Amino acid sequence: FSTVLTQLGFEATEYADVHENCGGPKPEALKAAFMKGDEIPSKLRNQAIRAARSCDVRYFATGYMNVSAPQKDSVSGKIKVMVAVNGMVWDISKKLPRKVGSVGPVQAFGLADDQDSARREALRHAASAAGQAIANQLASKSIR
């Protein structure tokens, strides 16, 4: 997702760098929260946003994906994996975060001889489409 945004001219910073330099919840805590549901609890999200603000970050993005169990494709005989990606971008420059972009679920599938390759292929397609959709929304608002 961030690779696509970077390729389209946006500057992305990994949250791990925010955590290391400005505090906030550990990246593992955010990942664990997404594993339990499709949203980060508000207290955890606010802690992460405060840390990002203290690092002079203006936009804060989150995203999550759902990956299906691998199954055999009836046409090709290969392994097929479905992925759905959701993403949101907030402007955190003011006291209250404002959502400036949202996408999802963007669905894609991957076909390959093994499940890991099929999963990577599905993730690549879904992340690319979601990143492009977010970039288009931000560009339409003159956000760079």
Question: Please, could you describe this protein's structure?
Answer:
With 144 residues, the protein is α+β, with helices and mostly antiparallel strands. It is built from 5 helices and 4 strands, in the order H-H-H-H-E-E-E-E-H. Strands 1, 2, 3 and 4 form a 4-stranded antiparallel beta sheet that branches. The longest helix is centred in the C-terminal third of the chain and has 26 residues. It is globular and about 55 Å long. It starts with a helix and ends with a helix.
List the helices and strands and how they pair.
Layout: H1 2-7, H2 15-22, H3 27-36, H4 42-54, E1 59-67, E2 71-72, E3 79-91, E4 98-112, H5 115-140
Characteristic terms for this protein:
144 residues; four-stranded antiparallel β-sheet; alpha+beta; 27% strand
Concise structural overview:
The chain is built from five helices and four strands; from the N terminus they run H-H-H-H-E-E-E-E-H. The protein has 144 residues and is of the alpha+beta class.
